[in-house]
Design a protein that fits this description.
CATH class: Alpha Beta
CATH architecture: 2-Layer Sandwich
GO molecular function: RNA binding
Shape: globular
InterPro entries: KH_dom-like_a/b (IPR015946), KH_sf_prok-type (IPR009019), KhpA (IPR020627)
Strand content: 25-35%
Number of domains: 1
Protein name: RNA-binding protein KhpA
Distance between the termini: 20 Å
Number of strands: 3
Helix content: 25-40%
Radius of gyration: 12 Å
Structural class: alpha+beta
Strand order of the largest sheet: 1-2-3
Function: A probable RNA chaperone. Forms a complex with KhpB which binds to cellular RNA and controls its expression. Plays a role in peptidoglycan (PG) homeostasis and cell length regulation.
Keywords: Cell shape, Cell wall biogenesis/degradation, Chaperone, Cytoplasm, RNA-binding
Largest sheet: 3 strands, mixed
Length: 76
């Protein structure tokens, strides 16, 4: 899943080397923390959060086969 998130985000940003995805797994959920360069935050979030929502939709759909709830948090 980390590779999927990186593949989606890499073409959107100016500093692809600063992309970092961490996963925290509990017994009922998996939380992915996406970190990008501060200058790229607007590109990843998009107008009114549309890009972030689209990224989350793809990640949630890809992870639907897992029996845990997925969350994607975006930060610096």
């Amino acid at each position: 899943m980390k590779e999927l998130i990186q593949t989606i985000v890499k073409p959107l940003v100016d500093f692809p080397e600063d992309i970092k995805v961490d996963a925290i797994e509990d017994e009922t959920r998996i939380t992915y923390h996406l970190s990008v360069n501060k200058a790229d935050m607007g590109k990843v979030i998009g107008k009114q959060g549309r890009v972030a929502k689209a990224i989350r939709t793809v990640v949630y759909a890809a992870g639907s086969s897992q029996h845990k709830k997925l969350f994607l948090e975006i930060g610096e």
